[in-house]
UniProtKB/TrEMBL annotation:
<dbReference type="InterPro" id="IPR027385">
    <property type="entry name" value="Beta-barrel_OMP"/>
</dbReference>
<feature type="signal peptide">
    <location>
        <begin position="1"/>
        <end position="23"/>
    </location>
</feature>
<protein>
    <submittedName>
        <fullName>Outer membrane protein</fullName>
    </submittedName>
</protein>
<dbReference type="Pfam" id="PF13505">
    <property type="entry name" value="OMP_b-brl"/>
</dbReference>
<dbReference type="InterPro" id="IPR011250">
    <property type="entry name" value="OMP/PagP_B-barrel"/>
</dbReference>
<feature type="domain" description="Outer membrane protein beta-barrel">
    <location>
        <begin position="8"/>
        <end position="233"/>
    </location>
</feature>
<keyword id="KW-0732">Signal</keyword>
């Protein structure tokens, strides 16, 4: 009887090995995406920045200076704290972020007339407080997330002009800024994740002083941009 029990126990253990191995794999996958543990992290992202068209009033004929922009770039760095799993399906993070975005002018019109050899750059420095919600997927390295942010932006119109004409805009302003993020992270190791995301970044009206033929005029338009970013997040 003892021998039969021993053989039966060995048979059960042998049959259970695949299930045990699978459970270990699942546990490993969960560990790789950190499993909702609280802690500090840092992130660095970069990618394409697509600024929306802008227009400013002026003293020139037609009353408007309008710009279209080439696709530019953006760089973002952040330090944050992950509060960990608050439910079976997700958790929250918050972070402080510093960003820089730049776009060159593609097309420049004054009073509805296209200007040859349009010049100038749009530059934006930003400081943001962001909040994210992570959606944990069972036994997966992939973690989708949503985020919102508010803060301040230093917006600079650098040398807006047409070839051979005087500079029409060369001013800056600091304004309220906001953003919304949609992305996902993929765990490469227990401490490092690859990030891919889309975000919209916008501001309130930017007050700039134009240099027009009949004197300086103050004008206003908001800044907006669509961003496609990739980067890394490291858990400390």
């Amino acid at each position: 009887m003892t021998r039969k029990l021993t053989v039966a126990a060995m048979a059960v253990a042998f049959c259970a090995l695949p299930a045990f191995a699978y459970a270990q794999d699942v546990a490993s996958e969960i560990a790789l995406r950190r499993g909702g543990e609280p802690g500090w992290y840092g992130s660095l992202l970069g990618g394409a920045n697509m600024e929306t068209d802008t227009s400013f009033t002026s003293g020139l004929a037609g009353g408007k200076i309008e710009q279209e922009y080439k696709t530019g770039f953006g760089v973002l760095g952040a330090v944050g704290y992950d509060f960990g799993r608050v439910a079976q399906w997700g958790g929250f993070r918050t972070e402080l972020e510093i960003g820089y975005r730049q776009n060159n002018i593609d097309n420049h019109t004054v009073g509805g007339v296209d200007q040859p050899e349009s010049n100038g750059k749009s530059k934006v420095w930003s400081g943001m407080l962001n909040v994210y919600h992570d959606f944990y997927l069972p036994a997966s390295r992939l973690t989708p997330y949503l985020g919102l942010g508010v803060g301040a932006a230093y917006v600079e119109a650098d040398g807006y002009s047409a070839d051979g004409s005087p500079t029409l805009l060369d001013d800056d302003d600091t304004v309220f800024a906001y953003q919304a993020m949609l992305g996902a992270s993929y765990a490469l190791s227990p401490s490092m994740s690859l990030i891919g995301e889309y975000r919209y970044f916008g501001t309130q009206g930017v007050e700039l002083t134009t240099t027009a033929a009949d004197g300086a005029r103050t004008s206003s338009d908001s800044y907006g941009s669509h961003n496609v970013m990739v980067g890394l997040r490291v858990n400390f």
